[in-house]
Specification:
By secondary structure, this protein is α+β, with helices and mostly antiparallel strands. It folds into 2 domains: 8-129; 138-294, no CATH class. The protein contains 7 helices and 12 strands. It has helices spanning 12-32, 94-107, 138-159, 195-198, 258-263, 267-285, 291-294, and strands spanning 45-46, 50-52, 56-58, 61-68, 73-78, 83-87, 166-172, 177-187, 203-211, 221-227, 246-248, 253-257. Strands 1, 2, 3, 4, 5 and 6 form a 6-stranded antiparallel sheet that branches. The chain is globular. The mean pLDDT is 97.
Length: 302
Amino acid sequence: MDKRFLNYPEWQDTADTLHMFLQMAGKVKLERSYKRPGWSHVRLDLTIQGIGTGIIPVEDRNFEIFFNLAQHHVNVQNSLGTRARIPLGDGLSVAAFHQQLMGALDDIGTPTPINTTPQEFYDPIPFDEDYQHHAYDQEAVELFLANLHFAHRALAGFLSPMRGKIDMPAFWFGTMDLAGNVFSGQPAPYSGSDTIGRNCYDERFCEVGFWPGDTKTPEPSFYVLPYPFLASIGSYGTLLMPERAQFLASENEFLFSLEDAFAAPDPQQAVLDFCRSSFGIQQRLDRWKDLDWITEPLTYPK
């Protein structure tokens, strides 16, 4: 198993450029897709070769945008067989990619104007004005894809046996993370007024995910975010596994670095232990009504 990774500062220029590219595809999906609770309609699909929108409906046809991060190009195609391709490489600016993507959508008969302001990004230059971000390191992108594949295996191991409403791991274009959720089925009103939070935080849930780091936390890490948010875990911190996992009160979430996961004898088991112990602490502090059913073991034969 490949245990290489890059801390965010080591590939920041490429990470930010790729992030903006993916945000554009996510915003196209946002404009066209049927709305779902918790913003589930904007999640992007991870595949063996990259990240894509999946099927997007429009009038008498469907279309999709797929980032092949193994061969470094973007396919834009519809269900009638019309397609366009955008090569990815160093020097392609965010503004140039925006122009090419909008042109490709026009070419396949699905023009889709988007809000050009980046979401949840520290440097929100409008896409069509952003000539600052133009780096594309193919090796770094391929390593990021490999890390996402590892994260998907590990997170799916935690989420798959859960009953009830589950979102399996998928890519969120706003924060550039791969994440999934297990929901309680119990309403939990959100006290804020922001659009993202109001349409996300309305039910008790537990989000488990992985992201490549950012300007505040440079290490690529796994996280567990309980909602309602936990301000403190008190003495239950002794139950958190593995040993190097931590609870960040300032972020209301549990954190476990990819580096520490890869240093474990069984990295996938280490991530599973992290998710299970974090979820267990959440339940000790705010037990769900149907927890016994949600976590009841499956009965499939081995």
